[in-house]
């Protein structure tokens, strides 16, 4: 049994897959499974992946499939993973070597704990192109370091301090137990990848390591704002699935309940702001439809979202309120370092 499976969704990744996989190969490869999902690539991604599998047959495995998008690739990884824990590493990102070796050391201890740990949390670094300074998303103010905790044992999660896919490592069996199946041919499913399993997480373990290196800033990236506006229907699809796949009021922990509400809030606000930024009458109508959808499908979440500052402003009729909402969004974007 492997300690951890790294699932690497790969689509036309020939220019950076080498760097990603090399960062995942370490001195303890017998403890690690690297599962490369070649998602219907038309470049040399398949050849590169097969070469690594040939050189490291006990560590690297490759699944070749017809293109199913990021969600379909992650689904294949969850289905086929042999590791006790699972982490998704996108093919244009990488992990820090020293932090990675420390992670393996910690996992060797964690798997021998009397009770299984559902989720590990580590820091991630925004590796933004052309940025002078790297922004590190840390969680040392939230989680006690190096011990198993529940939701009521943690500190306050600040605004903008969200548990993204880059910061979490889930117990593989938990992902299967919660029946996580991401939509295919859809961008932005990483939000569902975190949001849905979180409702099943009881125990956590924080590693104060800057493990994941999240590369942002390329013009062709899916999180580029102009591209997000073009793909707004996919953002809305994920937003609505988050509403449909959760009944947050039924979550036992008050701390987790509050966090899930805030998570849904930021995704809904981003959806709404992008619709406004498009300057399209059709998309303004889609924003109203989104809020109506939330109200009709999850009244408790709707009440929470509407009470928030941006939720209130976004639902005030008129151009001025929309301009003010966009202004606050720009300030938040600069403060937190996202696109």
Structure description:
β2, α2 and β3 form a beta-alpha-beta unit. The chain is globular, with a radius of gyration of 20 Å. It is 45% helix and 19% strand. The protein has 2 domains: 2-216, Spore Coat Polysaccharide Biosynthesis Protein SpsA, Chain A (Alpha-Beta Complex), CATH 3.90.550.10; 225-336, no CATH class. Mean pLDDT is 89; it is low at 335-339. By secondary structure, the protein is of the alpha/beta class. It has helices spanning 17-24, 45-55, 69-80, 97-110, 172-177, 190-198, 225-230, 232-244, 254-277, 281-297, 299-307, 309-314, 319-336, and strands at residues 2-10, 32-39, 60-65, 83-88, 94-95, 119-128, 135-137, 148-149, 168-171, 204-216. The longest helix is centred in the C-terminal third of the chain and has 24 residues, at 254-277. Strands 1, 2, 3, 4, 5, 6, 7, 8, 9 and 10 form a 10-stranded mixed sheet that branches.
Features:
339 residues, Spore Coat Polysaccharide Biosynthesis Protein SpsA, Chain A, 19% strand
